[in-house]
């Protein structure tokens, strides 16, 4: 699928009812109802607090693809993208889309952790990370996913997540806008035939992304953890791909990245539908840089600071804390680190030019401070979004 087609398909099928980062079950219910006349909708379980967990089944082909989003409740970008995808599959006028629906049956769980989504937290209502519950299956959400996995018997799995703004694509001044992983399936991280197929899918997606966000795609370390869902499903010899929606310049609502995820999902599904995957080309997976933690949201460089009885020229790192305030998501600036940060990058950088930097109370700035603005010399600088 060429880039212009991918961009046009997103533009014409974007789900306008979804926007921003705070997406929970009340946003999804009318959309699931909208699609119920055209797709098979099933309730596969309930959350700790009794919210239904739904799956949307699309297509009639023999190749089965299972994807799930918002396993972590505060990772909503991929949820927006899969609903965009549902709109596309509901309008199958494009021949390439028709071919996908004939070749594949796609099962989408748009929100596995509705309680965490409502509270805007990574964990479920019992404060359990569902992505570390693949063996214990101690939570109803984990049981719902595993039970459906066993029943559906997928040929491929897509594990859909979001990542923080701290990640760089390697050790360079480029954010990890999209990241992937072909999870390990054993302690030795063996590059099995199964993993080669997952890697080849990632290579295909990466080629498209490099046309738009060069050097802004990363991969995660593949250290094996059988408690993670992706590692577990990979160990069952089901090619599994982890997707991570990351940061693009100024895109704190993750609307730009939403399109990159949409494109990547569509490329992966089309590749699966139109080819006999054997892992060919997987070697290029190892050319994708591994993510590193090299970014802060803001760095104030060359700040004059009084530490004890001594003045020093240092850098100030500020990170936004994503916090629900009266059911609205706020990005609250917090001083994370004061140090020599020459090995780190800021999504936004301010040069203090060795002027004194004070907090909003005109006091010495300190780690842990939360401020909407700072004083640099005699000037006020806003640091809110």
TrEMBL record:
Keyword field contains Calcium: no
Top-rank taxon: Bacteria
Record-annotated Peptidase M14 domain positions: 15-385
Single GO term (MF): metallocarboxypeptidase activity
Gene3D superfamilies, alphabetized: Zn peptidases
Entry cofactors: Zn(2+)
Biological processes, Gene Ontology terms: proteolysis
SMART domains on file: Zn_pept (SM00631)
Keywords noted in UniProt: Hydrolase, Metalloprotease, Protease, Zinc
Cellular-component GO terms for this entry: extracellular space
UniProt family annotation: Belongs to the peptidase M14 family.
PANTHER family: PROTEASE FAMILY M14 CARBOXYPEPTIDASE A,B, SLL0236 PROTEIN
The protein, known as: Peptidase M14
Species assigned in the record: Aquaticitalea lipolytica
